[in-house]
Every structure is written in C-alpha cells, then in structure tokens.
Design brief:
Layout: E1 23-27, E2 33-35, E3 39-46, E4 56-65, E5 84-85, H1 86-89, E6 92-96, E7 109-117, E8 121-126, E9 131-133, H2 141-148, E10 159-162, E11 188-191, E12 229-232, H3 255-261
Parallel strand pairs: 2-9, 11-12
Antiparallel strand pairs: 1-3, 3-6, 4-5, 4-7, 7-8, 8-10
Amino acid sequence: MMHLPTTLFAALSLVTTFVNADVEFISPKAGSTLNGGGAIEIEWKDSGEAPSIADLTTYQLFLCAGGNDEATMIPCPALTPTPGQFSVTGNKATGTVGIGIGADTKNAYFLKIISTAKTGGTVTNYSPRFTLKGMMGTFPANVVTALEGITDTKGPPTVNNVGDANNPAALPDASLFMQPYTMQTGITRYAPMQPIPPTKITKREQKPLYPTSAVTIAKTILPLPKPQTTITQSQTFSISSRENPATPAPHPKDDMAKFLARWKD
C-alpha cells in the first residue's frame, strides 16, 4: 500500500515539441530529473491552442504517476489547497515534492491541470513525464506494470470539455448546480451561483440555504477525498459605473474651516 505525505507538492513540465493544450509548460523540461523533497520552480505560457489562457478562470494542479489511463495511475493529490486563478497567480508557481509518494522509476511522474473556462466546462491537460530521484515510496503492482510499457515522455492526451458554441454538449446542465454539494458524486462537483449582497438590510434573521446534516466523528484514518475540482455556476449579475458628474462642493469657510486649519501644521 502506498502512503501519501501530508505535505503537498508542485512540479510541472511539458515537451516543447508536442503541444496540444491551452497551457504550455516551459520549466522544468520534459524527461528531466528532479530531486524528491526539493523545491521546484515552474513556469508556463499560452500554447496558442484553443482555449487560450485568457478564456480560463481557475485551475487545480495534481501530481500523478503510472500509465496513461486512470486505472493505472496512483491517486493524484491536489498540489494547491484551493484553486489557483490565472489572472492572479500569473504563469509561475513553486512547490516541493514529498519523497514518500512513490518510487524513483524513470519518467514515472507527470502532472495534471484542470482548468475552468469562462464559458463553462473544463479542459484537462497532462504534462510530459519526468523522473523524481531520491524517492522512498513504492508503486502498486498495476502501476509498475503500466510503467514497463512506457517508452517515451508523453503524458496522457488532453481532455477538452469546454462548453462553447462549438461544443455545447460540454456546458453543465443547470440542474447540477441545484444539487446539495454533499449529495454529489464523482471527481467534479458543482456549486450554485454566488449570491449578490443586497443594497440594504431588510431582515433581522438569517435562514440557512440548506437543512443541517448529521455529523459523524472519525475514529480511524479516512480515505483520500475523490473530488478534484469544483465548478461554480457562471454569474449573470452585472454592474456598470461612471464618473460622478456633480460639481465638487466648495471648501468650508465657516467655523469648520477654522477647525480644519488647526491641523495644517
């Protein structure tokens, strides 16, 4: 059984001669060897393929190892506790790699990034493979078997589920956002549209959006969470603003002017 460390990790790479994704990672290089437990500096750019980074909002990063299908991969822990934002974090990230996640098999590791599009849906990209040396863990038998058949540094193919005019089937059904989060299953979960604060307080008592649920205290180690990304319903509320055209009020000339003058020195 493979044990996962509590410290999460980050490392990203993409072969520069094989680009079929919205994000192209330029550091570290494909097929490179990295130190397990060390700091990793990563950088990426827009690949020029649709969807562009400008059309994406948030992302989540995962470290994987094994074959090119989920059945032959180790569980992919999230590299970030919360989704990153392309407009905030830019094109760089830093993280560390725990030494207990697996073995140091050549080109066993690759990364997965799930990005949410402004139009709805997600695009999942996989980096090429790289090696982590100094690793102290082990891989399950099915992962070892899958790695024996790997002969290059290519990772799994891109999965484009971005919903737009060319791919309307990828747009989430509106009913998905109405299901309570705890009642949903699968690796992708859906959250309702974020409410807009009112312009004034009209009620003195607040009612919960959903009924309370039972709580069971864990007495043993719980399994790893299965959800990998959360899609929030697109916001339909919009605002507009303009400069105030009113003429500024003149400076006071009465006792208030004398009061304010006291603070000039």
